[in-house]
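// run 5 | inverse folding | seed 20
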């Protein structure tokens, strides 16, 4: 009887060690880490936009429509900025955040193209620094979005595979939202 019990406990411990709990937890943490990175980079870019608008406004006051688009895109992005990385689990929050980031990228891109028509603006060192920062921020956001999407794919695949699916159900783990 003791031998049977020992074999059962050994078998149960072996099965539990490979149950997927740790992989699911690690995947969830990775998704949250990449979401945090994406939100932080987006916030930094949002903080730079007013400085860019001010620099352009000084040299290109006739571009008010373009400046207004950038300002509105920034406001919309701020409005849909997730409060926490966990907020991105809500598909609507995720989609609105992604749309806001995309629209802001487009508006800033148009503003930078318009700046080509103003030699004094292009010559301003502050503007050039801001332009470089905005371009770098856009690239960093693209990279952070890619990392987030990859982390979500890995996590979702992990909780959908057997035997992890059973463990995920017991843990209450659900698939994470994806960009569309």
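// decoded
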């Amino acid at each position: 009887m003791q031998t049977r019990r020992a074999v059962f406990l050994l078998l149960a411990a072996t099965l539990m060690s490979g149950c997927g709990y740790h992989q699911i937890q690690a995947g969830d943490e990775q998704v949250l880490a990449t979401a945090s990175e994406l939100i932080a980079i987006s916030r930094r870019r949002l903080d730079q936009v007013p400085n860019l608008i001010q620099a352009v406004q000084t040299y290109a006051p006739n571009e008010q429509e373009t400046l207004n688009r950038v300002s509105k895109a920034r406001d919309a992005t701020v409005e849909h900025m997730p409060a926490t990385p966990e907020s991105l689990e809500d598909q609507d929050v995720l989609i609105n955040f992604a749309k806001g980031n995309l629209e802001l990228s487009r508006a800033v891109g148009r503003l930078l193209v318009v700046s080509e028509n103003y030699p004094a603006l292009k010559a301003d060192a502050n503007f050039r620094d801001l332009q470089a920062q905005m371009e770098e921020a856009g690239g960093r956001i693209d990279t952070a979005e890619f990392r987030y999407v990859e982390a979500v794919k890995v996590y979702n695949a992990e909780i959908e595979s057997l035997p992890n699916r059973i463990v995920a159900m017991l843990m209450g783990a659900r698939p994470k939202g994806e960009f569309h």
